[in-house]
């Protein structure tokens, strides 16, 4: 990875990317970890959704607030404080029940939001931001697959939910001592006023709504993937195993995005991933065969990871001024928070099918908005 314009060395760049990938991997593990807490009776269906929501909302809010209140001249200090906070949150989760778990996961999300904000700060100062994003999404996907497989096949069935959070503690320690010391002490300051911008036009806001809707749809289904599998007749162990196998789709999609992002336009990419996600949801609603479910979850995971690299280019197509593109991270993170919250509002007891319908609605909205943007741009061409 090449040096960037701010003079940050490759080792420091890799350190920030690795730490951000460790933070970004948490949403992919939520169905396994929160599902294990649900199975043990430490969460019910509603508080599971609330825990996922608050964790994602914490990431969204702190990443946005950090833009205004954190200075770029204390990067390593911010990383250390955030990693120590995630360590404390995971340690508290080991002892918590019910709403206390929700609070702990919210604290964890808030700290991870700082780490993701630092990745955005690195990319805005980089000569090749797309290259950095490619490393990030691929590393995150590999970590998600490795961790989900380990958790589903070995850790959670034998040792329970607390062992899963001990794995996260181990990851935290690895990043704290293996990556944080190599992180840059500071980022170069941006030009004064560079962060100020006018509001996006209507088409920009519409595209941001679509971005948030797609991410919300992903999380609305994903956090309830294991409970939905058990409702379809599978055991919790089978559900965990299918989720872990499907997580390999994250890696395949990350590599595919690296190869095709510069060649494929955002409109066909987003239309295809939205349609594929709806197809995957329909398969899970109509099939009770493990092979069909695993294939559907793989397709869902692939579309999940393949779509976000095209969000920036979709926003630039909708708003060539770039004002909407500057808000892509808050839109994605808010979608991560809203999706589980919306799903939690329509599930009750052991009836989880409402989460699937919420997800379908989000994907349908993104499909419609993307089609409108493509149509609008063709008319203006």
UniProtKB/TrEMBL annotation:
The chain crosses the membrane at residues 12-38, 50-70, 79-97, 109-126, 133-151, 163-182, 202-225, 245-262, 269-286, 292-312, 324-343, 355-375. InterPro entries: MFS_trans_sf. Keywords: Membrane, Transmembrane, Transmembrane helix. This is MFS transporter. It comes from Novosphingobium umbonatum. The lineage of its organism: Bacteria, Pseudomonadati, Pseudomonadota, Alphaproteobacteria, Sphingomonadales.
């Amino acid at each position: 990875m090449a040096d960037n314009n701010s003079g940050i060395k490759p080792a420091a760049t890799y350190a920030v990317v690795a730490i951000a990938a460790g933070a970004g991997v948490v949403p992919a593990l939520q169905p396994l970890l929160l599902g294990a807490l649900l199975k043990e009776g430490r969460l019910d269906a509603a508080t599971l959704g609330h825990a996922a929501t608050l964790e994602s909302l914490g990431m969204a809010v702190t990443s946005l607030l950090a833009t205004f209140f954190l200075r770029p001249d204390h990067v390593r200090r911010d990383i250390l404080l955030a990693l120590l906070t995630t360590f404390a949150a995971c340690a508290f989760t080991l002892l918590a029940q019910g709403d206390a778990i929700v609070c702990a996961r919210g604290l964890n999300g808030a700290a991870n939001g700082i780490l993701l904000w630092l990745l955005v700060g690195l990319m805005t100062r980089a000569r090749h931001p797309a290259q950095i994003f490619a490393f990030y999404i691929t590393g995150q996907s590999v970590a998600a697959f490795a961790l989900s497989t380990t958790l589903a096949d070995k850790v959670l069935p034998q040792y329970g939910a607390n062992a899963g959070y001990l794995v996260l503690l181990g990851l935290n320690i690895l990043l704290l001592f293996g990556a944080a010391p190599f992180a840059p002490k500071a980022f170069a300051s941006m030009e004064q006023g560079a962060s100020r911008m006018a509001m996006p036009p209507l088409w920009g806001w519409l595209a941001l709504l679509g971005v948030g809707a797609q991410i919300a749809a992903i999380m609305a289904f994903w956090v309830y993937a294991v409970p939905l599998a058990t409702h379809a007749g599978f055991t919790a162990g089978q559900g965990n195993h299918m989720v872990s196998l499907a997580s390999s789709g994250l890696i395949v999609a990350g590599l595919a995005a690296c190869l095709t992002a510069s060649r494929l336009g955002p409109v066909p990419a987003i239309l295809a991933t939205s349609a594929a996600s709806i197809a995957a949801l329909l398969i899970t609603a109509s099939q009770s065969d493990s092979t069909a479910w695993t294939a559907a979850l793989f397709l869902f995971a692939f579309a999940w990871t393949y779509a976000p690299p095209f969000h920036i280019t979709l926003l630039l197509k909708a708003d060539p001024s770039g004002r909407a593109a500057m808000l892509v991270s808050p839109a994605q993170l808010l979608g991560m928070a809203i999706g589980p919250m919306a799903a939690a509002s329509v599930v009750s007891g052991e009836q989880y099918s409402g989460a699937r319908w919420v997800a379908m609605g989000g994907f349908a909205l993104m499909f419609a908005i993307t089609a409108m943007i493509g149509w609008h741009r063709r008319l203006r061409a």
